[in-house]
Write a structure and sequence with these properties.
seven-stranded parallel β-sheet; four-stranded parallel β-sheet; about 425 residues; alpha/beta; about 20% strand
């Protein structure tokens, strides 16, 4: 690593740490004023944001990036408006910082409670999606944290412009600009420095592809909130409503292919396969989805005139496609479905379609994923849809934060003791 990169990252870290103290004492009114200023600026500068983003998009296309990558990179009017709405939704959320749980008097006379506090400085490393710059900064801001953002080189122009908008909003509310900093170098060694700066950064949130997160898992010294894969399943139970199953499973796969909450494997109970698979798979094939199927599914579909089916291999059950490809398996019962999810799933998001409450309850209790859904699309596993305003990322870990990570996931608790002159005897 060059000394200049190391010095730059150390300087960013020191300024973030200093800003984190100001953010920890910032009032809710100040933080909300900054967020509303940013939302207004995002809308006012929408045309400029799209113009700058197009530079990034054309560069990505020129570098041969695949359509899913380009889709994640592209900012549309809808994307920009969703960012602004997310900012406003975060404003409407209660500020968790400084809240003290009910004080409980102890036998000694002291009163004991817990206060909600910021984590401090959060480092976010992400690829492609420039909207993360706004979403992540907004959540860190409202939760009283400072944040260092390191986006991918492919979105450098978009991220730089969005960072300027954010910093203007901070300044307008009397908050330090250094509370949100974007690493402007595309040198990858900056990431290596960032993930080891334990003296400045309290937690790293990686949002990117498997190779990025695998690297960070191997090299990081700073704790992480992360998920590696989004291998999401939907199980259509024997007691499912057919029309509902078709509608939900179509949406789970085809509403967008690139997000981590898109369905990658469809599991169908053998008792209902003949009723649901032909209708559903015609929709998939009409939309250009490649179907990778097990033997039982192939028999059902070929008996109904389907062609161009691909035999599913073990690696298909283990693959997050992020593309118009779907694996399908016909299973004997809910136990086989849950065993398959346990063996091949990534503990991200899994769903069941059923009108049988007992089956739904079993699925909710036994499927060990960050989000478990009954009778709805896996695409709902998202901070905005969960009412969090936005999300900093999705965690399939079990400690501290799990699922879409919003404000509470960016905070911690500390004990507070109120005394009246008590001494320990």
């Amino acid at each position: 690593m060059s000394s200049s990169i190391q010095e730059m990252m150390q300087d960013i870290g020191m300024r973030a740490r200093a800003a984190s103290r100001a953010m920890a004492r910032a009032s809710s009114e100040q933080k909300n004023r900054a967020l509303l200023h940013i939302a207004e600026a995002v809308r006012q500068q929408a045309a400029e944001i799209q113009k700058i983003n197009q530079v990034d998009v054309e560069r990505a296309k020129g570098n041969g990036q695949d359509p899913a990558f380009v889709d994640r990179l592209t900012m549309t009017p809808k994307t920009i408006e969703t960012m602004a709405l997310g900012l406003e939704q975060i404003v409407s959320l209660d500020d968790p910082i400084g809240k003290i749980s009910a004080l409980q008097k102890q036998a000694s006379g002291i009163e004991l409670g817990q206060m909600r506090v910021p984590l401090g400085v959060i480092g976010i490393i992400y690829e492609s999606r420039p909207n993360v710059t706004i979403d992540a900064a907004a959540l860190c801001l409202k939760s009283g944290n400072a944040v260092i953002l390191r986006g991918g080189s492919e979105a450098i122009d978009s991220n730089t412009l969005l960072a300027q908008i954010i910093q203007e909003g901070l300044a307008a509310a009397g908050l330090p600009k250094d509370a949100v900093q974007v690493v402007t170098t595309t040198d990858r060694s900056a990431v290596g420095e960032m993930i080891t700066m334990t003296q400045f950064i309290d937690v790293i949130v990686p949002r990117g592809g498997k190779s990025l997160i695998a690297r960070l898992m191997a090299e990081a010294r700073v704790p992480m909130i992360k998920h590696l894969d989004g291998i999401c399943h939907t199980y259509i139970d024997a007691d499912a409503d057919i029309a509902m199953a078709v509608k939900v499973c179509d949406n789970a796969k085809t509403q967008r292919y690139a997000p981590c909450n898109a369905m990658e494997t469809l599991l169908v109970n053998q008792e209902i396969a003949q009723k649901v698979l032909p209708t559903l798979c015609k929709i998939y094939q009409d939309k250009g989805v490649e179907l990778r199927v097990d033997e039982l599914t192939r028999k059902t579909l070929e008996a109904n005139g389907f062609q161009n089916l691909v035999d599913a291999k073990v690696e298909d059950w283990q693959t997050e496609y992020l593309a118009p490809i779907l694996s399908i398996k016909t299973v004997a019962n809910i136990d086989e479905a849950m065993n398959h999810i346990e063996q091949y799933g990534s503990k991200h998001t899994d769903a069941i379609i059923t009108n049988n409450k007992a089956q739904a309850d079993r699925f909710l209790r036994e499927v060990d994923s960050a989000s478990v859904i009954v009778n709805a699309s896996t695409r709902f596993a998202d901070g905005f849809e969960y009412g969090l305003g936005a999300e900093i990322g999705i965690s399939n870990d079990k400690l501290h934060a799990r699922g879409p990570v919003g404000l509470d996931g960016l905070t911690s608790l500390k004990y507070v003791v109120m005394g009246h002159g008590e001494i320990r005897t």
